[in-house]
Structures are given as structure tokens and as C-alpha cells.
């Protein structure tokens, strides 16, 4: 019965994205549309180089372009028309590699149609992008090998799959040690009732399959990922009275998280780090997530979890690490962010004013020390 229901959901989603939707304006909620927010100059240039038809068929709930991409191998889950893949193609460079996988043949065909166009526009002699038809919870069947990618991204797609834990399990399998899943998706404020979970349009609009946000941390722990790092969050609005009635008291948020797969190491310790400013587009500061912002040249104390991620990921060469000094911090210095102060709830972050979101947690390391003293 479950397998039959899953097959029905896949068919509904394929029909919705392959036939019902022709452009992003056809959507009935803002769940699958990126909120207007500043885009880094080099990322904006990469997006502007994407063909118009590819961009028009884009349905995403966040901008899933992480930092430090040069020469990386990137896998895009639910790549759709290929917009993010073609942007990433430029950012990883000709020595990098981007693979897009999508279950909707119509979307894959649109992406493949403009492969030569983009490679010529980028000046690449050999294509560094591949598009595959397949299911993101069955990456092995699509030929995706173990520990073959540095980064996996996904843009408002995991919610469309009934078995979300299997998706994360497959991502863990194909990531290299030190690799990262950087993804935007839709989350619910509570466990969804049956009426919402079986509503065809709500599934297509990314709401019917939304994960209860607390379940993400449980899945990550069971699979072996580090605890999820919340990056951004925005509340979702529904522009349809009938859909509003169906969802009732449930609220939805589009949020970006990063999950790291790290090698087995000994006990982690807090340490002090200094960011070098060597990442393209982040020369002055690196906003790592909603809790930690690293300014070039500034000494900052980080917790055990953050320290082990920075030391064992692609970010290691961008930081200088040193033990914590025994003497107390100077007057006015930022204290380390305590676990109780870490923002993990996307609804909490989404409910904050934009000015607070951009500068993170007041009076905490990695966020800010008030309006005049930002760490």
C-alpha cells in the first residue's frame, strides 16, 4: 500500500512540474520561489549567463549556492531545468564537475537542450555538466557512486519525496568525507494531518510533503551527519483561500540548512580561529550560518562542533586554528556562543527582523556584539 501511494505521489509531482506548471508565475504559493534578497556579485553574474527558458522553468525555495566551489564536484538533487547547475558550472570552473538529477523527463530535456549553448558561452572546451533522469532517493540506480562528490545541493525538492530519510541516506553515501549537503527546503511547524499529506496540489506546491522541522535533526543523527546548521529561513504565504483552509493552523517556512559528513575523529575541543578572507565573494567576512559570521583577520572562539567542521571540511585552508588562551577574554570581547543560544528553529529565525537575521544572535560570538561591535 505504501509503495502504491509513493508511486501515486511521484506521478502527481511529475505531472505538476512537467505539464501543469509552465513558468514560476503559475505557482499558487511562494514556497517554491526564492525570496528577493541580495546576491553576491559573482553569483549574480553566473545566474545572468543562464538561458532565459532555463531560468523561467526554475522552481526553487532558496538560492543553494554555497561558498568555496572552485574545482569541486557538485551533485544537484532535483535539478529541474538546470538553472542552478549552469550557474554552478561557472563557479566550479572547467576542472570541477556538476551533475543534475531529476525525475521529470520534461525538465531534464529542457536542461540538456541548452548544454552546448552554455558551454560555448562559458568558454569551456569540455562540458563539465551532466544531466541524469532518475530518483533522488535511488541515486545508485542512476549510477552515482559512493563518496564521489564534495557537495550535494537541493533546492525545494526533498519535500517532494515520500521517503526523506532515504534521500539523506543516499546523500551520505555519495558524499566524500568532509563533504556537505547544502540545501533549501520547506518545513512544517507540526506533523502534517492526513488531509494535507494527501492533497495533490499541496504536494506540487511543496507543502504537502513538508518535513516537521524537528525531524531533520533526528534523521541527520541516525544517518551519521553532524547536527544541521541553519543558514536562512523565510515564512511562506499561501495565495489561495481553499489551500489556506486545508492547511489550517500549520505554518510553513522555507529554510536553508547545511549538513556535513565528517571522518571519525577523536573528541573535539573548542578553539580560536582566524578567517583568512580567501574565499571568492567573501573576502571581508564569511557568513557561515545563522549563528556564525567570521570576519577577515579577527580572532574568534568557536564551539566544539564548529571547530571540527572547519578543520575537516573544504574550509580548513581558509582558517588559522589555535588553542584557546587560558587568560580570560579582554573587556568588550565577544564570548563564545553557548549551545543554548544557537538558533536551530527556522521559525524562530524567520520571525526575526531582517536586520537581526543578517547579523545573527545579539551579543554572541559568530553573530554580533550589538550594533557597534560585530564579531
UniProtKB/TrEMBL annotation:
PANTHER family per record: ARSENITE METHYLTRANSFERASE (PTHR43675:SF8)
Organism placement in taxonomy: Eukaryota, Metazoa, Chordata, Craniata, Vertebrata
Keyword Transferase: yes
This protein's name: Arsenite methyltransferase
Sequence ranges assigned to domain Methyltransferase in this UniProt record: 71-220
Protein's GO biological process: arsonoacetate metabolic process; methylation; toxin metabolic process
Gene Ontology MF term list: arsenite methyltransferase activity
Originating species: Oryctolagus cuniculus
SUPFAM superfamilies tied to this protein: S-adenosyl-L-methionine-dependent methyltransferases
UniProt keyword list: S-adenosyl-L-methionine, Transferase
